[in-house]
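How it folds
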Amino acid sequence: MWYRRVLFNTQFAATIVLPLWLLIGRVFFGVILGWHYAIGLFLAPVLFIFLAVVTTITWARRSARHSGAVSKTDAVLLSGWYFAVLCYGFFVVDSVHSTEPGTSIATHVFGQGFRDASFTIADIAGGVIIIIAFTTLWVVLIEYLVETRQEAVTRLTGLDYEELRLRSESGGPDASEGAARRASGLVPGDVAE
């Protein structure tokens, strides 16, 4: 539970830090920014938007705010997403000229012989980032809609969600004629009794 709370409380920071890591994180390890920086100028804002939307939807869920923690599914997806972004920034190979072999943080740490592996790991991490970004967005949106469904029904109809469920299960006093009348939507008898 503590880990899910940490993820919940660090989402805003991750929304800022991870795109910056993707964009300029290599500079802090002595890697010269090159052609990949131009690609990063497009990718970092897209990552920022995805992270901001996911964070906003997560914080909009009442259950997450009250518990101060993300759900277990969110925790798995966010952990994978954050790890993939960190890996991508660590392994992405960048070069200034096409004749240079290119470097990454990994090649600075493990040597230039690690360059091919660095390319491969960065490509895999980039694909994982894309897949998890869309999956996480979809999952938190579904969680939000499921959580707020009852409130929306109550706001729109003025009826208690449990009352509607019980009516539909029992068929109500006028179930046969009510079904025919409801084909066009709510009727006054449905809202107030």
Summary: The CA atoms of residues 178 and 184 lie 11 Å apart.
